[in-house]
Predict the 3D structure of the following.
Amino acid sequence: MSESPTSESLITELDELGVAFSAEIAALASEPDIRAAQARYLGKKGRVSEALKALGKLDPAARKAVGEVGNRVKSGIEAAVSARLVALADAVRQADLARVVDVTLPGRGARLGTLHPMTQARREMELIFAELGYEVATGPQVESDFHNFEALNIPKDHPSRDMQDTFYLSPLWSGAATETLLRTHTSPVQARTMLRQPPPVKIIAPGAVYRRDDDPTHSPQFMQIEGLLVDRVGKVSMADLKGTLLHFVRRYLGDDLQIRLRPSFFPFTEPSAEVDMSCVFCRGAGAGCRLCKGTGFMEIGGSGMVDPEVFRAVGYDPEEVCGFAFGMGIDRMAMLKYRIDDIKTLYEGDVRVLRQFP
Ligand code: DAH
């Protein structure tokens, strides 16, 4: 600003400020920036306001002319501000409208999970026995020595009670072994069911069991299915047991399969038998089959007629009732059905495996 501005120089200065402002806001793209620019020109200490302070030094006639120019420049700046803001809002709206959303595109469906092959196997087995009138019974996985061993006529010195085979639970503070353990088989559900209800009994008991075992065919936790049928003396025989198991095997794995009962020993059955079925790979042919080592059979579980001692332990009268029991590995049956050769595959939860069992 010159010492004593003339009306001409003041008008020129005001006009130049108007032009400068236009150039300045053309480059601005946000409302706060534009408002700040507006304040730099029109604010109390803004450039236009500062220039107009010289107005007072002009004579009245010149003052009017310059004042008019000042007002024109001011309203020019205000108009430029609103025009710029409108243009910005417009651009945002245009961009919004230009966005293309294809509402006819099919949605991305959520992927449904599937039942684990072990669950599928268990359910299928339950169904086969349910068709024969069996009910599903359950018991705790943390068991007492009484239900897991004592009631099942398993004597104190029986090898299955060994620390080598059984997980005993001990209180953290003492570390001493207790009478509480992880059940080593589903057979304690036999005792629990009979203790809970009078005969007749017709149950299966599927569930997890635990043993201190760990190799390709043994997992420290695995699944068994127990069967127990108790009725009046004379109404149940070993033939019923064999017929039931044969029906189950054929229904689960194929009508061409056979079973065979091999004399054996279990403390809770008398007589006792191992249950073998035709090898599912060679269908019983045997010769040259690696999986059954040429025998044509593979073992699937244990069975027998319930020992009178077991009936006594649960308060049943062995003169009045008799029955059969059996126990099989669900893992093993699932492995045979789905041709899985490592039991760990069933417990790893690898989705590449699980997807094969939709
Ligand atoms: N509890 C036995 C085991 O885990 C299997 C078994 C054998 C169950 C004979 C039975 C049976 O009910 O009668 O090895």
The longest helix spans residues 60-98. The chain has a mean pLDDT of 91.
